Amino acid sequence: MFDLSLFNILFLVLAALLAGLIDSIMGGGGMIQVPALFAVFPGLTPATLLSSNKIASVIGTTGSAFQYTRVNKTPWRLVALSCSAAFLASVAGAYLVTQIPNQWLRSALPFFLAALLIFNLKSNAGLVHAPRHQDHKQSAIASLGASIIGFYDGFLGPGAGSFYKLLYTRILGFDFINTAAPSKFLNVASNLGALCVFFYLGFFDLRLGLFMAVANFIGGQIGSRIALKYGNGFIRKAFFISVSALTLKTFYDAFLT
């Protein structure tokens, strides 16, 4: 379906590698991977390119998530419940975006991100691991938050990984290291939900997605090792840089293009 020059191959490999590395540490790898895909394949439908991005992200993010589980105890029951909620909500969001416009949400998103950034800068969220809720209440809050973010991920998507981190650090009281695996599994679940809709509607190219996935996976392995080596303070700083960049990017997309 597509021909690649050596330059384009190297360009896509580098973009996917960097996306996987950045995504594994702070989230936001799609800010690199998606523009790269659109630059190389301007003739492919946007939905096909977005699904290729999600295929690569699912594989890369899953790899880095398991890397984090090797170091920290993962609350698997909590993860399983909230991932199920994120998956189903993402399916609904992805289907809805094919039926109605989402420009209103694009316009509101940068301001919402900026408010969250300021809100979190004024706290020590993510530096101390002190879960605020237990058992059923924790599961209920996590599942509700995952449903809202999962729906958003299917409907629009930018910054979903950062929102999952905020759910676990700011609302549930986890630190960044213990948030890493759950937030990434949630991101995988909502990406899979959206992918199901893309696949059902015929918007996918497995060759392109898997090609990008190999480099994304390698980048994710490198990034997760860096994050584990330098700990919560490093991840917190990287997280704020990522959300700041995402705020500027979404503002540009909504009002200057």
TrEMBL record:
It is a multi-pass membrane protein. This is Probable membrane transporter protein. The chain crosses the membrane at residues 76-97, 104-121, 141-164, 209-228. InterPro entries: TM_pro_TauE-like, TSUP. It is found in: Cell membrane. It comes from the Bacteria. Keywords: Cell membrane, Membrane, Transmembrane, Transmembrane helix, Transport. Belongs to the 4-toluene sulfonate uptake permease (TSUP) (TC 2.A.102) family. One of its GO terms (cellular component) is plasma membrane. It holds the Pfam family TauE.
